[in-house]
From TrEMBL:
It comes from Cocos nucifera. This is Cyclin-dependent kinase F-1. ATP binds at residue 52. Residues 394-407 have a biased composition (Basic and acidic residues). Residues 394-414 are annotated as: Disordered. InterPro entries: CDK, Kinase-like_dom_sf, Prot_kinase_dom, Protein_kinase_ATP_BS, Ser/Thr_kinase_AS. It catalyses: L-seryl-[protein] + ATP = O-phospho-L-seryl-[protein] + ADP + H(+); L-threonyl-[protein] + ATP = O-phospho-L-threonyl-[protein] + ADP + H(+); [DNA-directed RNA polymerase] + ATP = phospho-[DNA-directed RNA polymerase] + ADP + H(+). One of its GO terms (molecular function) is cyclin-dependent protein serine/threonine kinase activity. Gene3D superfamilies: Transferase(Phosphotransferase) domain 1. Residues 23-383 form the Protein kinase domain. Belongs to the protein kinase superfamily. CMGC Ser/Thr protein kinase family. CDC2/CDKX subfamily. GO terms for cellular component: nucleus.
């Protein structure tokens, strides 16, 4: 289902007195598949904020949930407060961040490029933001330059968590904590379990709020247990679960790799089929020229096409390249042309330093267990080599947001 074009949406935010009493709406500054974003001034102290009016319940819920979980992460946009209306439209009050990486790239293209030191500083900030997400079992699933906001001081912040996949799926968290832990199939390092338990503590009040809303709308699963236990019991149960898991075998397969940096490759085709956002995954790449010799980015025209491109470089997906891949749910459902002589990363990355090629190799690795995590990538030698990452306050940030055209990512400089 495609979202309605922005012009045909009801601009309900202007009619919501609980918002307009507190905020003076200045102008609409952006829109996306399911949201309109306004610049506004908080009447009490004059602070400028962004009001994001989201026209989709699940997207709103996911974004609020994720931003609350990540509230202390310095490279994630701050959620100041939020308002619900009729359990459908939500308005998120976000810190206002004036520009984004897409604008920086457009600006750099006109002004002679981005220095390697600046690229490194941006990458480090992205990795810290992604690392914070993955530490909290949050997978962004929509990372792209226009969703990487940049403050006037050069601080980069992940935004737009509407497509997030989090360790607390809304249906699961309200049914029971036991089910939640089973669903997550907790394993691996103790630190991951402790983080998840902390998240559950944090998530308790949100879950309860949602339970109440759903109960009042008659949507609640009758088996729901959370409403019948108080917070202390709930936390005791979590501690019990934590202790049990600490004693268990740690080799179980995990649905979410701790801090896995594969932020762009996390949905199976099954996910896409079920996903109400599937129309928004690819629409902006449709106009891209296939053979651009200028060195500009040439993204695939769909997720499957993108996989085909990766396979042509790295070779086919086999048990040799990824042990266990034949057991994946969609294996043998989609067929790619056989690649006898994969191009190889070096050939694609000519004139790049060994450290740069190595960094890409660590990221573009089929087997998720061997793929580098965001946090580990921070220590990569690429960042320790000259030119060193530029200081944050030396990043050149366009003073105002560029009117970049997101339909033309092929135009972005390499
Ligand atoms: N906190 C913010 N400060 C300033 N501008 C913002 C902020 N959040 C969003 N914007 C602007 O609004 C635009 C749309 O916001 P956002 O990407 O969150 O909406 P969306 O509907 O989820 O988008 P998409 O269709 O890309 O998923 C952004 O590209 C950005 O230009």
């Amino acid at each position: 289902m495609d979202p309605p074009p922005p012009s045909s949406r009801s601009w309900s935010i202007y009619g919501r007195s609980e918002i307009t009493q507190r905020y003076e709406i200045l102008e609409r500054i952006g829109y996306g598949a399911y949201a309109d974003v306004y610049r506004a001034r908080r009447r009490s102290d004059g602070v400028v904020v962004a009001l994001k009016e989201v026209h989709d319940h699940d997207s709103s819920f996911r974004e609020i949930d994720a931003l609350q979980i990540l509230q202390d992460a310095p490279h994630v946009v701050d959620l100041l407060e939020y308002f619900w209306q009729d359990d459908k439209d939500a308005v998120l009050v976000l810190e206002f961040v004036p520009t984004d990486l897409a604008s920086v790239i457009c600006d750099a293209k006109r002004g002679g490029g981005i220095a390697v030191g600046e690229v490194k500083r941006c990458m480090l900030q992205i990795l810290r933001g992604v690392g914070a997400c993955h530490r909290n079992a949050v997978v962004h699933r929509d990372l792209k330059p226009s969703n990487l906001l940049i403050s006037a001081e050069g601080v980069l912040k992940l935004a737009d968590f509407g497509q997030v996949s989090s360790g607390i799926p809304s249906q699961v968290v309200v049914t029971s904590c036991q089910g939640y832990f089973r669903k997550l199939d907790l394993s691996q390092r103790t630190v991951v379990r402790i983080n998840k338990v902390q998240r559950m503590r944090h998530g308790y009040h949100n879950s309860l709020q949602r339970c109440r809303r759903e109960t009042s709308h008659g949507q609640m699963d009758p088996k729901t247990r959370l409403l019948s236990i108080n917070e202390d019991e709930y936390l005791r149960e979590l501690d019990g679960l934590k202790a049990n898991y600490a004693m268990e075998d740690t080799d179980k397969e995990m649905s979410l790799q701790d801090c896995d940096a594969s932020c762009l490759a996390t949905c199976s085709t099954g996910d896409v089929e079920d996903d109400p956002f599937k129309g928004s995954y690819t629409y902006e790449f449709l106009e891209v020229e296939e053979d651009d010799e200028s060195g500009a980015l040439t993204p695939g025209i769909s997720d499957i096409d993108q996989l085909g491109k990766i396979i042509s470089v790295l070779g086919g997906l086999t048990e040799e390249t990824w042990t266990g891949c034949s057991k994946l749910p969609d294996y043998n459902k989609i067929f790619f042309s056989k690649v006898d002589n994969p191009i190889g990363l070096e050939a694609c990355l000519q004139n790049r330093s060994a450290a740069e090629v190595n960094l890409v190799r660590r990221l573009l690795c089929y087997d998720p267990a061997s793929r580098v995590s965001a946090v580990d990538l921070l220590q990569d030698r690429y960042f320790a080599e000259e030119p060193l990452p530029a200081p944050v306050d030396e990043l050149r940030v366009p003073s105002i947001k560029d009117g970049h055209d997101e339909s033309s990512p092929g135009e972005w400089a390499d």
